[in-house]
Every structure is written in C-alpha cells, then in structure tokens.
Amino acid sequence: MTTLSAGAVRRAARLPRSWLFGGVVAVWVLLWIPLHGQDTLALSTSELTSLHERLNDLRDAINNTRGSSPVFSAFFDVIREAVDALTVFLQSLISQPAYGRPVPLIGWLGVVVVATLAAYAAGNLRVAVLTAAGFTSFGLLGYWQQSMDTLALTVAAVLICLVIGIPLGIWAGLSDRLHRVLTPVLDFMQTMPTFVYLAPLTLFFLIGPASGVIATLIYAMPPVIRITAHGIRTVAFSSVEAGTSLGATKWQLLRTVRVPLAKRTIVLGVNQTVMCALSMVTIAALIDAPGLGQVVLRALQTLDVGTAFRAGLAIVIMAIVLDRVTTAARDRVEARYRLGPKARGRRRIVLAGLGVAAAVALYLSYTYVWAAFFPGPAGTGVVGGQVAAGVTDASDWVQLHLGAVTDAIRNAISYGLLNPLQALIAQSPWYLVSAVVLALAWIVAGPRIVPTVAVCLGLLVATGLWQEAMVTLAATLVATVIVMALGIAVGVWMGRSDRADALIRPTLDAAQVMPAFVYLVPFLGLFGASRFTAIVAAVVFAAPVAIKLVADGVRGVPATVVEAATSSGSSAWQVVTKVQLPLARQSVTLAANQGLIYVLSMVVVGGLVGAGALGYLVVAGFSQSDLYGKGLAAGVAVVLLGVLLDRTTQAAARRMDAGTRRGRDQ
Amino acid sequence: MNKTGKLIAVVTVGTLALTACGSKIESSGSSGEPSKAACGTVNIAVNPWVGYQADAAVIAYLATKELGCTVTKKNLTEEVSWQGFGTGAVDVVLENWGHPDLKKTYIEQQKVAVEYGLTGNKGIIGWYVPPWLAQEYPDITDWNNLNKYADRFKTSESGGKGQLLLGDPSFVTNDEALVKNLKLDFKVVYAGSEAALIQAFRTAEQQKQWMIGYFYEPQWFLSEVKLVHVNLPPYTAGCDADPAKVACDYAPFDLDKIVSKKFADSGSPAAALIKNFQWTNEHQNAVALDIAVNKLSDDDAAKKWVEANSDVWKAWIKS
C-alpha cells in the first residue's frame, strides 16, 4: 500500500518535472530581456586576471629553478631516463637505425610476421590475417618507418600504463577510499586539454621521446584503471563468498577468484587504453614525438589534405588492427576453456609453424636489405601517392561544388539555433545563469547534485573566464543535440538491421580514430572558420560513440518483446518509439552522457578552426608565453564544464533508471 | 603432413631461396670522417611554418654536406623551442619573429641564449584582402573606406559587424585595439590556426567572397594567391608603444636568429655558418615553394637551391 502510493506520488511528480523545466527556461528568457548584457563577466582576449598572472609567475618560477633544483635531477630526470631508455630500445628494434646499423634490428618482414604470430597467439586466425594485411599496408602507403615510430611510442606508453594502471585499478577495485580519491584525478587527466600541459612537460622531461610518451600516458592511463576497478568490483559476490568459505586468504582470493573473473573486463580496459594512446599521436607530435603525427602536422602547414589523409589512414588502420586483436584476445579469455582437444592441437601446430616463420623472417630482415627496407618508391610508397592524389581531388571537388549548400547549412544553424542560444547563455548575468543551472540540475537529477554543481559554477567564476565558458557551453549543447539526433537515428537503424551494422561500424571506427587535423582543412573549406565548423568536427568525433551505444541498447531489447509488438499490429515506427527506444532508455542516456563528454574533448580542436572561446584560449596559452596562465585557467574551465555536465547527466540517468525499476517492481 | 604444415614448408623453402639473392646490410661502423667529430651535433628547432622549414632545410643541408655535422631537426612550436635553450635540447632557432618576452626570459634573465644576427628576411604583417576584391573595389585598400564596406564583411560569427579574421594565436596582434582606436565597425574573429586562415583566403578568392584578415610575408601561400595589403595609418617609430592605444600599421620585422649560449661558445663550424647565414625573401620563397607546392622533400629542395646559388652560400662558410 505504501509503496503503491509512493509510486503514485512519484508518477504525479514526474509529469510536472518537464513542466518545471520549461517553466525555469521561460522565466530565464523573461529575465534575460531586461538583464542581458549586464554582469556577463566578459574579458577581452588579451586581458589577464590576477589569477592568470599568478599562474604565469608560477610557470616562470619553475622554469627558472629547473637547472638548480635537486628535485629535478633526483626525480624527473630519473623518470625521463627510464622512459627514454624504454622508448629508444623499442625504436631501435623496429623503427630507427641503431647499433651502428643503417636500419633497425628488425626489418619490415620480421615485424609483419612477428605481429601476425602475436595476433594469432592472442586472438584467432581472422585477426592474424587482418594484422598481416594492416601492417603491410603501412609500407604500401609509404609510411613504414613513421608507422613503426608511432607503434613504438604507443607500445611504450601502453606498457607503462598497464604496469601502473592494472595494479592501481585492482587496488581501487578493492578499496572504496582509494576509488573515491582516484576518480576526480582520473577525470582531470581525461578532460584536461593536452595543450595545457604539453609545454610544461618539456620543461620537466625535456624535448624528446620521454615527453611524448608521458603526454600520451597521462591521457591513456585512466581507462585501464577505471575499467579494471570496475571489473574487480563487479565480480559476483557469490563467487567471492564461495572462495572465502573455502578458507582462502585475501591474497588467494584476489589471485584465484577476483582477477581471473575480471580478466575479460581488464582486457577491455587495455583495449581502451590502446585506443586513447593512438588518439594522441598528432598532439604529441607538437613536441617532436616522432611518427605519423609529424606527417599530419606538416601536411597541415601546406593544407595538403591528401598527404594528411594518407598518414591518418595509417593511424586508422593501426587502431583497427590493435582494437580487433585486443577484442579477440578478450573473447579468447573465455573461448580457451571451451576449445576441444582437436582444435587445441591444430592451434598448436599453426602456432609452431608461425613461430618458425617468424624466426626465419627475423633472421632475413636482420640480414638482408630487401627484408629490412620496405620495397617501393621512397616517399610515396606503392599506393600512397595515388591515395593522396585521389583524396586531394575529391576534397577540392567537394569544396568547389558544395560551397553554396554548406554555407546555407552553416547559416541556418548559426542564426537559427547557435546565436540565440549563445545570446541567452553568454549574455545573461552570471548569477542568473548560475541560478538557472542549479534549478535545472535539481529538477533533472535531484537535490543531491546541487552542491557539486554549485562548486563547479563557483570555480568557473573564479577562473575569470565565465563568458568564454558560456560561449563554449552553448556550442557544446548544440553539438550534443546533433550528436544525439544522429545517435538515435543511425543507432536505431543499426540496432534493427545487421546489414546496416556491418556496413556502418567500420566507418564509425575510422571517424573515431582519424586525427581531427586530417579533416579540418576540408571542413574549413566547406564551412569557413566558424563555430559551426568546430561543431561539425565535434560531431564527427562524438557521434560514433553515441550511435554505437544506442545500437547496442536497441539490440539488447529482447526479441520476444519486439515480436509481440509486431504481431499485435504495431507499425515499425510504433515498435521503435513505443518499445525499442523506451526499453533502451538506459543506453540512450549513457549515449547522451558520453556524447557530451566527447564533444567537450573537441573544444580545443574547435579553437583551431574558429570556435574561439575556451578552445582558442587553451591554444593561445600553449603558443604565447604571456597567455600561459590564461590558457591554463581555460583548461581548468573545460574540466569544470565536463565535471558539471557529466555528474548531472549521470545522476539524471541513475534517477531515471531507479524510477523505471521501481515502476516495474510494482 | 597437414595443410598448414605444408604451407609452412613452402614458405620456409621460399624464403631460404630468397636469401641466396639480395644484398646484405653493412654495418656503418664508427669509421666516420674526422670532420664529424670537429662539428658534432647541431640541434635545430623547426617551427611550424614553411618559410622556417626552408631555412632549416638549407642550413641542415650545408652543415651536413659541407661541414660534416650531424644535424638533428626538432619539430617544435616557438615557445617550446625557446624552453629548449634552457634545457639544452635546442641549439638554434633560425627564424625568430620578435618575441621580446621570450628574449627577456632566456637572453636577459636566464642567459642561456644569445642573438645571432639577422636572417635578411623582412617580415611584413598587416591586413590583407583577396585579389579579386582589391580589383573590383580598388579603394578598399585604404583603411578609411573600410567602414563603408563593413556590412559586406558580415558573417555568422561577427555579431552584426564586419568580420576581421585572425589566424594562429602565436603571433602578437594589435587588431582588437586597432579596430577600436580606428573606430572601425568590425569584430575580430579568431580562426585559431594558420591553416584555417589560409583556407579562408583560398575559399574567398575561389568563390569571390568578401573577406579581410591578418596575414604576413614571407609566406608560401602568397605565391598561390597574391593577397593585397590594406594600408592602415603608416607605422612610425614608437606609435605602437602603448598596446592599448595603437592606431598604426604593424612595424616591419627584421627576422633574426637565436642560438643557445653553449652552442655560440662551442666554436663549432656550424655556429659560424649560422652566424653568417643571410638571404633574401626571394631565396626563401623559392625553397618554400618547392617544399609546399612542388612537394619536394626538404633535402631535395635545399639541394636544388644550393646548386643554383653557390655564390650566396659560399660566403656563409668561408668563416
């Protein structure tokens, strides 16, 4: 009886929630009319607040003491030397001339065969073939050495991530306290724009491979820690209890129950860390990290879309190979126990054969020129030249012929949606926006979120960049709306059709790992230097995640439910809107959350193509010493926006989820 | 023998047969020429624009081929390059655009870097319009007429005013102050990168769009689209002293070279080469064009220029 009435009250309360939401917005607009333009906390681009100046001074102080302070030699230099040693060793194996030889120890043939062997050992025959084809394509594109440099750096960064991240993740899985301390640190590492710490890194770790690797691992380490902790936490309580009742010690429990059962999840963490590491290739190149990123940056200077794409394609191929291999490795963790003795025997024979082939290939590529240097014309490779020329032509054609259409699209979105929204958010007094944000957060996510939101808003004011943050927020919201529209439309399509899924998924993978720097130039040609170009770039990067999550959610709706709806005469549209989407609601909210965060991670890239605001300030801070402190503050503001939006959407999703579960229980 | 076994056998035999032909890798060993030891390693920072790349290409080519030095090029932004003077990672910055703040920190305060003479290149900064616009509206190159056309320069980004587009944030600009002090009905919009700025000018010329923006010479793009300089009130010494009150055109830059103190004192023949290095905008443009448009590698572009201009560079290495 009591639960029933509580449910009724809640249902009654849910209806007005959207009313309340609308009401708050209406009041906001009404108040905006007399108040707009007041207390917007605007700051011109070259102006600094005392906080920004203090941050500059701090940077100078560190810069000046670098030579004399023993902290540097004792601490940072030791780390740098160790990381350098590891990276240089990997490079001398596969990419750079070493030990008095004009070539690395292992030539292309050796690398291809060993990589294939590794892929087979970790995964299966399919990914082994994919690996062989993928690695060969690096050479065909004409970027063998650059690809190997990128691979060496990525492997170095990932190895360090795993050595530190997996133990830390396991610990965080066992200790609530560590988990609580670690979470904000990881948030910071993932959302702080890399540009902010790129220049200081070279101060601490000098210009060289170490800085590139460390920049990469700061961004790439959080996923493996988070996902490992999650894996350990979600090991079924009954399994742990069974272990305890058998008298296992804590350590035995960890070794024989928790870690083996969480293994599949941990490998997923490894996979995500690899992907994140690869996404840093271009940015690390800004501080001279060798490899494909260098090619992309250099091509950007001459607006050479074809060459940038060629290098970007090599990065995409590397990412897809590494993704598929680690995913296959994850599935093997389970499949291994199910293999019959016959299959296991066959596997062993193939492994032995590949092992012999690898030994031969290693010898050949160590000894003979043809197996060391990838054959084909220097510079362009066998197919690289054609690929670049084709892409350049296509990009030129599109820019020349679609210019009028794309201008119209940009103007429609900018004048119709972005400008009004930006006027409302960035031209309102800061206290009004703060009050509205607090009220809206309370309405969608409940009262417990209010303190977090209030702290974030307060700190945003303290950065001195309130108005810039609001301009960025407006563009972020518009981009997220587009991301979700695409996410639902394409995601539902993919979720309902296997053919569509198979067709679209590789494109999504490519869009996620293709460095933004590659497609910025054609986008600039189409949409000009504008906030809309930044939004498009963010959508390209963020939509794949949202689409995949929605598709998985729709796919997860039990087939029986869909069948029942269809047989009772529902149209396809009704099945989607009344059955599949509502039941996949949790995935849709997760998609919205991830879409937002991914859009925010493109703020800095947006700054490079005309979005201005926080993104521009971060870039400016990286390239002008006077603006360093302001750029750092802008980076912090991006983090604050990220935390605010992430916590609110997560709490809203949890609340919604709890609501539906309770509703179902009755 | 099963299928896989057979395959392996075939592959093995095949590869063994291949070893019979093909040349072996020779160790390069440590028998380098003695001059290499005398010159040692030179770390050249390469800042991210093509003109600089051209400087670095030629210097690296001469230092390697003529002096037997080992040259390491490091692709860095300006700020990070200067930091490298302090940490010892960078010996040379070949084309410096002003940067009084960095000079203060690293030359005056930390004393890790020294000025090493002019490159001979003249840097011109200013406001530019695409050539079609200057042709059809010749009076647009006078700043007094800009307000007349302000409406035509409107975009979705400029909030109802004309748009003045800026590029890479690493350049010091006075444009916000200029717009204010010259009472122009324009808004400064930050494109955020050189690529965005160049692409904007390229599109504007192709599609006859209205556009005005910040640009500079020497720049390879000017050989593709000959942008036209807009005349602001002429620069006079000291007219830019107070950044908030600037109402005149940018000062012409004499681009200069900076090297680390350590490198300057090393007595390396490469240091003498860099000290003597001086050429014209035409020289740089020729090499930059080969790199940017003709897609030559740095080394090939440098080789081409060096072979055609021996009278110029011979003077740099006669010490």
UniProtKB/TrEMBL annotation, chain A:
<keyword id="KW-1003">Cell membrane</keyword>
<feature type="transmembrane region" description="Helical">
    <location>
        <begin position="627"/>
        <end position="645"/>
    </location>
</feature>
<feature type="transmembrane region" description="Helical">
    <location>
        <begin position="151"/>
        <end position="174"/>
    </location>
</feature>
<feature type="domain" description="ABC transmembrane type-1">
    <location>
        <begin position="147"/>
        <end position="326"/>
    </location>
</feature>
<feature type="domain" description="ABC transmembrane type-1">
    <location>
        <begin position="469"/>
        <end position="649"/>
    </location>
</feature>
<dbReference type="InterPro" id="IPR000515">
    <property type="entry name" value="MetI-like"/>
</dbReference>
<feature type="transmembrane region" description="Helical">
    <location>
        <begin position="507"/>
        <end position="526"/>
    </location>
</feature>
<dbReference type="GO" id="GO:0043190">
    <property type="term" value="C:ATP-binding cassette (ABC) transporter complex"/>
</dbReference>
<protein>
    <submittedName>
        <fullName>Glycine betaine/proline transport system permease protein</fullName>
    </submittedName>
</protein>
<feature type="transmembrane region" description="Helical">
    <location>
        <begin position="473"/>
        <end position="495"/>
    </location>
</feature>
<feature type="transmembrane region" description="Helical">
    <location>
        <begin position="449"/>
        <end position="467"/>
    </location>
</feature>
<keyword id="KW-0812">Transmembrane</keyword>
<comment type="similarity">
    <text>Belongs to the binding-protein-dependent transport system permease family.</text>
</comment>
<dbReference type="Pfam" id="PF00528">
    <property type="entry name" value="BPD_transp_1"/>
</dbReference>
<feature type="transmembrane region" description="Helical">
    <location>
        <begin position="194"/>
        <end position="220"/>
    </location>
</feature>
<keyword id="KW-0472">Membrane</keyword>
<feature type="transmembrane region" description="Helical">
    <location>
        <begin position="265"/>
        <end position="287"/>
    </location>
</feature>
<keyword id="KW-0813">Transport</keyword>
<dbReference type="InterPro" id="IPR035906">
    <property type="entry name" value="MetI-like_sf"/>
</dbReference>
<dbReference type="GO" id="GO:0031460">
    <property type="term" value="P:glycine betaine transport"/>
</dbReference>
<feature type="transmembrane region" description="Helical">
    <location>
        <begin position="349"/>
        <end position="371"/>
    </location>
</feature>
<dbReference type="GO" id="GO:0015871">
    <property type="term" value="P:choline transport"/>
</dbReference>
TrEMBL record, chain B:
<dbReference type="InterPro" id="IPR007210">
    <property type="entry name" value="ABC_Gly_betaine_transp_sub-bd"/>
</dbReference>
<dbReference type="GO" id="GO:0022857">
    <property type="term" value="F:transmembrane transporter activity"/>
</dbReference>
<protein>
    <submittedName>
        <fullName>Glycine betaine/proline transport system substrate-binding protein</fullName>
    </submittedName>
</protein>
<dbReference type="GO" id="GO:0043190">
    <property type="term" value="C:ATP-binding cassette (ABC) transporter complex"/>
</dbReference>
<dbReference type="Pfam" id="PF04069">
    <property type="entry name" value="OpuAC"/>
</dbReference>
<feature type="domain" description="ABC-type glycine betaine transport system substrate-binding">
    <location>
        <begin position="41"/>
        <end position="307"/>
    </location>
</feature>
